[in-house]
Amino acid sequence: MQNNRVLITGGAGFIGSELVRQLVAQETQQVIVVDNLVNGKRENLKDISSDKLELIVADIRDSDRMADLMSGVDIVFHLACLGVRHSIHSPDENHQVNATATLQLLRSAKAVGVSRFVYVSSSEVYGTARWVPMSEEHPTFPMTVYGASKLAGECYTRAFYETYGYPTVVVRPFNAYGPRCHHEGDSGEVIPKFLLRSMAGKPMVIFGDGTQTRDFTYVSDTAKGIIAAGCTDSAVGQTINLGSGFEIAVNDLAKEIASIVDRADTSVIHDEPRPGDVLRLYAELTKAQQLLGFKPQVTLREGLIKLRDWYVSSGKSPETLLKDEFVRNWDITKVN
After folding, report:
1. 67 and 206, same structural domain?
2. Using N-to-C axis directions, what is the helix angle for 101-112 and 145-164, rounded to 10°?
3. Where's the NAD(P)-binding domain (predicted)?
């Protein structure tokens, strides 16, 4: 990546900031982060000291601005999006950002001569598994507007390859977690919420019966796969899963987290199921292994311990961090 100018949309977010970290460590020629800081945070990049890194606060829906920013860029990694819970209370905006803006970015990237466009999709495009493990040929039946909008973005990305021969790659990360993952607002995810609640001596809240499964992938592994997709020629035109190749039920995840924080007495509360909740996800990784040399390095237990230790070293108590948590976070009313 040393000779490339790279632009990352959503680069101040959770996965995006890890991508930045790894690209800077690889001495990428220039890393341009575009983020409107709705979900991303400046503090996610504050520990990265490099004169090759630039943060631009902008909205990816501003087509003219994005075209200017992509001029002279070699690779675009497109991660900016609004999430699952957001799509439940604000479906129109979710589609505009995740789908319509992706089409606009593809048009602009092609027009200004960006050499490769990597679209970071989501395992949510699959919906609930019909069979496991789930290969890229598994049917796509998204259960939320988020999943549908990400699938639309995928289709636009593949269409630019098929119609124009434009070099694009689609990657489908399964559930990433790790330092800087979201516990707050409508972006809050199960692992950070469980960890912080258990550390604070509060009950972990499971929506539904807890038998639903996920393929949790440590964020450094996810980012390595995304970077590989950006610099591997055989990945062009492909759609590729990025996961751990391991599934765990949410009930068992709660037990594992209670063990890791040494709070076996942590209670669990079962609440009503979340609307559109996917019941099973479990990635098949053969394609990622063959095309990208992708091999996850961090086990779930190792990753949970790393995240626990990161929270401990953050200087903020679990109780303080939980002030930003909304338990039923799809019920958040959009203010503006």
Report:
1. no
2. 30
3. 7-304
